[in-house]
Amino acid sequence: MKLDVTTLEGAKAGSVDLNEAIFGLDPRADLLARCVRWQLAKRQAGTHAVKNRSAIDRTTKKIYKQKGTGGARHGAASAPQFRGGGRAFGPVVRSHAHDLPKKVRALALKHALSSKAKDASLIVVDDVQLSEAKTKALVERFGKLGLANALIIGGAEIEANFQRAARNIPNIDVLPVQGINVYDILRREKLVLTKAAVDALEARFK
Predict the structure, then answer these.
(1) Burial letters for 73-96: b for 16+ Cβ neighbours within 10 Å, e otherwise?
(2) Which residues form a coiled coil (predicted)?
(3) Which of 102, 105, 125, 187 has minimal Cβ neighbours within 10 Å of its Cβ?
């Protein structure tokens, strides 16, 4: 698969051959959904909790005698049926993470990349570097490329001026190539890869 390479100014900078085994697959929604669910479950805090019966500080004295009242049999006032009592079957602090095989995660990433290539939402740039960290100048360059909602993947490290200029632009995410993931690819309309990122991805899946 051949794709034109552009610069941040919108000028042509040659072309690049993309590996069909990474960027030319027919996207599978089930794989993408499994990987996104795995990512979101893993980062879920799971800190929700309530006070159960043992955590309520109320009297444990029997509130009235067992027989002769005509009412139900009751003991401690911390029982769930009483106002101020403990919560029955409430949420507890736990991890929501579950396992997903590495091969499935790798395949899902390939399908996410392929989905952007298939939708013509993949842009390859030669490099992401700025002489000075000016957000206004970067917004103008993004306007030439038609980037209003995009994920930008650089090389092993993102150039400092570009990182500073881009971090205040809404709906623009910037990540090094080792941070690329299925969820961030799918949540943005465009995917921008540098030539270094393309080379790193092809080496990763070799």
Answers:
(1) eeebbbeeeeeebbeeeeeeeeee
(2) none
(3) 102
- What pLDDT score does 57 carry? 94
How far is 86 from 53, CA to CA, in rounded Å? Answer: 4
Residue 177 banded pLDDT, cuts 50, 70, 90: very high
Provide the CATH number for the domain around residue 160. Answer: 3.40.1370.10
pLDDT value, residue 87:
95
Both tokens assigned to 110: 């390939």
77 and 143 share one domain: no
State the Cα–Cα distance between residues 84 and 195, nearest whole angstrom: 62
Could you give the number of structural domains in the chain? Answer: 2
Find the domain containing 185 and state its range.
2-44+99-204
- Rounded Cα–Cα distance for residues 19 and 21 (Å): 5
Whether 157 and 78 map to the same domain: the answer is no
Asked whether residue 109 falls in the same domain as residue 200, the answer is: yes
- The answer to whether residue 138 scores a pLDDT higher than 90 is yes
**CB 35 within 8 Å of CB 185:** no
Predicted pLDDT at 1: 83
In contact, 22 and 114? CB cutoff 8 Å: yes
Percent of the chain with pLDDT over 70: 100
